[in-house]
Structure formats: structure tokens, C-alpha cells
Amino acid sequence: MEQFLGNRVESSLSCDRIVLATGSSRTGYNIASSLGHKSIVSVPALFSFKIGCPQLADLAGISVEHAKVKLSFPPDLSLRAFASGLSEAEFKSSLSQRGPLLITKEGISGPAVLRLSSFAAKLLANQNYRAELEISWLGDL
Description:
By secondary structure, the protein is α+β, with helices and mostly antiparallel strands. It is about 25% helix and about 25% strand. The strands form two sheets. Strands 3-6-5-4-7 form a five-stranded antiparallel beta sheet. It has a two-stranded antiparallel ribbon with strand order 1-2. The N and C termini lie far apart (about 60 Å).
């Protein structure tokens, strides 16, 4: 069994496994890399959607309780690479979320948008954070 040996000023540490929690710090990734570990490229998740719409900005602060938000991508884009263990149908359905939505000065936020950004984080990053967004202000009505 391979062991990790770390040195501190006061003592040494020997263990079978170690967790290196880096957050978004590049320093943490560099340390892991220098020890021979490979990193998975991370992308931001849980973010609001910035929408360039001056008319929407005038409504900042208004919230809708039962909205539905849906992302659409070019039809030639293979969603399979982003499905993270889900079937393509399950992944496509995750690109539509229902729940509270808040209009902000720069776009939209709220639980439905944050869930949607989480499910679609890698896909959005791959598309330079560009996608079609459909909002149903009345949910499924």
C-alpha cells in the first residue's frame, strides 16, 4: 500500500489517504500536480444568469414563485459527454427546472436558476456560457 508522508515543522504525518481541499485555488492544484496527481478541470457552478436585456433590468427585485427555466443548445452538440452518469433523456430533462426565480439588475437568479446552472455547468462552460434560455413565468400553465 502506498502511503503519503508529509512533513510539518513540528512533526511528520503518515497516512494511507489524504484529502486536499483546494477550493478554487490554483496553488492547491499545483501542489497535487507536483505530487503526481491528475486534476479534473473544474468549472464554476451555482451561478446566476447574466442577460443583456435593459427591459428586464427595470424589473430587478421582482420574484416569481413558480417559474420554469429551460436551456437549449445547438442540435449538433453531443450532450452525452456532459451527462455525468445520467442517460441522455435524464440529462436533457435536467436542463429544465421549476421553482422560484428572481429578476436581478443583470439577469435572473433564484433556486430554479441555481439548480439549472449546477446541472449545466460543464455544458455552459464548453459553450462559452452561451445558450438559449426559455422562461415560463407561469410554470407549466
